[in-house]
Specification:
Strand content: under 5%
Number of helices: 3
Shape: globular
Helix content: 25-40%
Number of strands: 0
Oligomer: single chain
Largest sheet: none
Distance between the termini: 36 Å
Radius of gyration: 16 Å
Structural class: mainly alpha
């Protein structure tokens, strides 16, 4: 495995049975079809904008969306991956992060 270049950082938290693949360098998708684009229903956008819950049931700050926002707006590669079991709000956190980033731009 090649070590990360100076200034590059990989952070993985709360992983269960993790498998991490890190690719660096030029990546092209010329031999692949474009990724599908699906509109987010307005009802989901409204729910995430108006009803985002900042605290967990343990009164701890929910950092999933804010962590993703930091990765999408910070220095370096702009990539955030939200992973976890079904029913834990991954889609909502992703929509929240995308919404906040789009409003900042």
């Amino acid at each position: 495995m090649t070590p990360l270049a100076p200034g590059q950082q990989v952070e993985i938290r709360d992983a269960k049975n993790p498998k991490t693949i890190v690719a660096a360098g030029s990546i092209t998708m010329t031999s692949r079809p474009p990724l599908p684009v699906t509109d987010i229903p307005q009802s989901e956008l409204r729910a995430v904008r108006r009803a985002w819950v900042e605290l967990s049931v343990r009164d701890e700050r929910v950092r999933t969306a804010s962590d993703a926002i930091e990765r999408l707006t910070g220095g370096g590669p702009r990539l955030a991956v939200i992973a976890g079991p079904p029913g834990y709000g991954k889609r909502a956190a992703g929509i929240k992060a995308q919404w906040e980033v789009s409003q900042a731009e």
